[in-house]
Design a protein that fits this description.
The structure holds 2 protein chains of 2 kinds. Chain A is of the alpha/beta class. Chain A contains 5 helices and 5 strands. In chain A, α4 links the parallel β4 and β5. The chains are: A alpha/beta, B alpha+beta.
Chain lengths: 126, 547
Amino acid sequence: MSAKKILVADDESHILHVVSLKLRNAGFEVVTAADGQEALELAISERPDLLITDYHMPQLSGLELCRKLKQDPITAKIPTIMLTARGYDLDLKDTQDSGILRMLSKPFSPRALLTTVNEVLLEAAA
Amino acid sequence: MGVPAAVLDNLAARFRSCGLFVVLLHTDGSVAYHDPQAALFFQRYVLPLLQYGDPTEPELRAKLLKVTATSPVTVWNNFPGVILATAPCVQRRQLCGVLALAGRAGVFNHAEEILRVCSRLGLDGAWLHQQAEELAAYGEEDIQRQARLMLGTFKDQLSLGSLEGEMNSLSGHLADAYEELSLVYQISSGMRINRPAHDFFKQACLEALEVMGVQGMGVALHGENIHHQEPVLYGPLSLPPDSVHRLAEQLIPVLCRHKGPLLINDLANDKEFNWLAKHVRQLMAVPLQREEVILGCLFTLGKISGDFDSQDSKLLNSIGNESAIYLENAMLFDDAHGLMMGLLHSLTSAVDAKDAYTCGHSERVAVLARQLALEAGMSEAFAERVYMTGLLHDVGKIGVPEFVLQKTGRLTPEEFEQMKKHPEIGARILSDIKQISDVIPGVLHHHERYGGQGYPYGLVGEDIPLMGRIICLADSFDAMTSNRTYRKAMPLEVAMTEIRRCSGTQFDPGLTEAFLRIAADKFRELLADHSTRARQLMDSQPSLRCA
């Protein structure tokens, strides 16, 4: 089985580095995007198995990105983990039809993120 | 010190597209790297020449290897059919070999010599010629220029590679820092003051165990306080319980002396803790300390990979500091809470002491009312406030003359007026204690009736505060089932019937339902249990005994 591909979108490069390192070390293939628009394009061209996205991003916010992905049948089924600044948790009802399965507050534990990724991939496979 | 393979692969790929061949020779002459995808001309003909030299010119290869870190780019046209440029391969100011760039010579002559080398290498001369024809030809100046370019590219690639390495290592450290930050955050958000200590420490230890990558993490508390617990160890490491005790007893005095983290990476060679070496290799411990007073310690055993380092001890120290703050606060909270509850009980005893017949009444009402609140679906926290209200509901009787309280016959209208003042007197007595302002409505309104016939305000239905309605039920039930100055106790079943009859007129119908749901047996148990405890308390403290 080939490695699962994960798209990580965040405008803060240190988050991209930390998350990519953790995921690559765990055997995932990682594609990164520095804003919402780039993430949208990569989601269509790369067809990732999972999306990890920040909420606050230039061009296109994480939530707008998820909504756009949901509208396109090619990307509608990509399960998503959203990263938010602590204290800015989204209202769950806003995320209901956006494909967001989990939310993690920054600063998150990279270990917990990896566990969440594995859980979400298992759920998506089921 | 090897040059990273990725750097060489990258370099080789760039020059391959120009028909050039990249080789790295060790200074001892062996080939450290060559472009694995190079054209056959290079693989079969040039590589062996570089590897073994040209037997007709044995000096050539030796000269080629005589480079220093500062040698310039040198061009060699003495290999038949080949043009070669060499440059020192320098990494971090250390010479680590000779970088060679080979191309097909501009004039593919020296036919005889080429054939001679071919026959020695077992190659067909015509075939080699054909292979060579497919490659671009290079002159001396061209190859020199390309070699300089190669050197520049090599340096850039090296620094990119080392930047990438640094970036990965920084990201790794950052990931660790995130991990620690989120651990400390988790622990501090678990620092609710009324949380039992064992619960707090269990969570802290289990989370730290994962983040620190250790086999065991434990806590030992020191000194007498209500949070005192046996030393515990969490994690996959199993130590006999008496070893955990022994460790805890030994650690406290050591940490008192040490005044800081204790870090032992080689237990076998430690004078004090070598007995642990048969279980585990490393030990680290920090005191839980507030203002010089040691409240206990946190300890961790067995780092899963490597040894404990300063980062581990810093992290354990932060967890220790946070835990000590929690512990100190929890102790202060318990002190304050204990003091307040003690004072409230004294106040209640003062009332009960005035009226022998109602001895224990306040405590019983408190217990019943708490049970009722829980049965009616209210929160634990609210039920605790209800309990407190029950304790205090009759405090106002302090202001009612004793002869009225203790009168055996019927009260005259004037006496009854005096009696009716006790809810308001109680509310006034308690009004200065702002921490219990929420119990005052219960005290003030526990004689209101659901139908509006009660006192002091004659409130109706839901206008009567919930606390008041709850206390009213518990108070009436206890009054019916206890002996009073003016009548004997009612049997339990009769009291239950009476309660049901008065639902809606005297009592809140919803609460009455809940009250009747609690089986009569349960009340009996509850009361029996309470009166045993009350009796024990009285026996141990004669001053509390009712007259």
